């Protein structure tokens, strides 16, 4: 058993070339996330939150710096290793759900298990178990367009938990929901540790109230993390 944090970021930097201008988005981000911890990254629109989440999710490479998952250097992963690690160890929850409209929510969730090398039967059983726990027992055969926004996000959360990830990345998961439904989704995040107690959650938001629900919060400002001000 190793005692490494789930995630360590060391001096992460990222820039984009915008015509003749260089835009420095991340200017040396340092961060540690431990097992079972729920941390929110707060920041204004355009502050680089989504860029950082993409880098942590191994969807985009930083210009420099180290990303360590339980002590493993993600910078040394090849493309195949990155895809396998992402499928098995990282769950994603997005603002826009990203459910396949032609499939039932049971099939949507089960696909993640198949990508994680589960057998078809195991993936179906796991998907059904999670969807039932998330309050969708009577919606298993429904397609996304037949569900409310809150139900679609619950289905997306079930999909993200299929492979018992070590790290769950959530990008504005309540952004498309009304306040009451958003609170219900946040309650689910609070309860997720009952399903996977050691899983760490990293959520980005521009909402002070949401950031206050987590165990801890940091603010991304001018390309670096600064202490989060709840005011």
Q: Which range best describes the helical content: under 10%, 10-25%, 25-40%, 40-55%, 55-70% or over 70%?
A: 25-40%
Mean pLDDT across residues: 90
The counted number of beta strands is: 10
Strand content: 25-35%
Could you give the distance between the termini? 40 Å
Structural class: alpha/beta
Order of helices and strands: EEEHEEHEHHHEHEHEE
Describe this structure in words.
The chain is α/β, with parallel strands linked by helices and 231 residues long. Helices cover 33% and strands 28% of the residues. A 6-stranded mixed beta sheet has the order 6-7-8-3-9-10. A 4-stranded antiparallel beta sheet has the order 2-1-4-5, with helices on one face. The mean pLDDT is 90.
Concise structural overview:
This protein has 231 residues and is an alpha/beta fold. 33% of the residues lie in helices and 28% in strands.
SSE layout:
Elements lengths: L6 E12 L2 E13 L4 E5 L6 H8 L7 E6 L2 E2 L5 H11 E5 L10 H11 L4 H14 L15 H12 L6 E5 L7 H17 L4 E6 L2 H4 L4 E6 L2 E4 L4
Parallel strand pairs: 3-8, 3-9, 6-7, 7-8
Antiparallel strand pairs: 1-2, 1-4, 4-5, 9-10
Helix pairs in contact: 3-4, 3-5, 5-6
Key structural traits:
alpha/beta, six-stranded mixed beta sheet, four-stranded antiparallel beta sheet
């Amino acid at each position: 058993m190793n005692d490494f944090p789930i995630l360590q970021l060391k001096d992460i930097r990222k820039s984009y070339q915008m015509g003749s201008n260089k835009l420095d988005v991340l200017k040396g981000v340092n961060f540690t996330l431990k097992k079972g911890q729920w941390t929110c990254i707060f920041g204004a629109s355009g502050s680089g939150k989504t860029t950082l989440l993409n880098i942590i999710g191994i969807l985009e490479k930083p210009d420099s710096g180290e990303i360590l998952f339980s002590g493993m250097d993600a910078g040394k992963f090849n493309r195949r290793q990155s895809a396998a690690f992402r499928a098995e160890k990282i769950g994603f929850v997005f603002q826009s759900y990203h459910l396949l409209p032609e499939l039932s929510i049971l099939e949507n969730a089960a696909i993640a298990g198949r990508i994680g090398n589960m057998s078809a039967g195991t993936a179906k059983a796991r998907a059904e178990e999670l969807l039932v726990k998330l309050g969708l027992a009577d919606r298993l055969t429904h397609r996304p367009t037949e569900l409310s926004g809150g139900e679609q996000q619950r289905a997306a959360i079930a999909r993200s938990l299929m492979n018992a990830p070590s790290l769950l990345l959530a990008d504005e998961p309540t952004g498309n929901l009304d306040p009451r439904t958003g609170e219900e989704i946040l309650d689910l995040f609070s309860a997720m540790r009952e399903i996977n107690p050691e899983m760490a959650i990293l959520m980005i938001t521009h909402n002070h109230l949401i950031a206050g629900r987590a165990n801890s919060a940091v603010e991304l400002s001018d390309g670096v993390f600064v202490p989060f001000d709840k005011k």
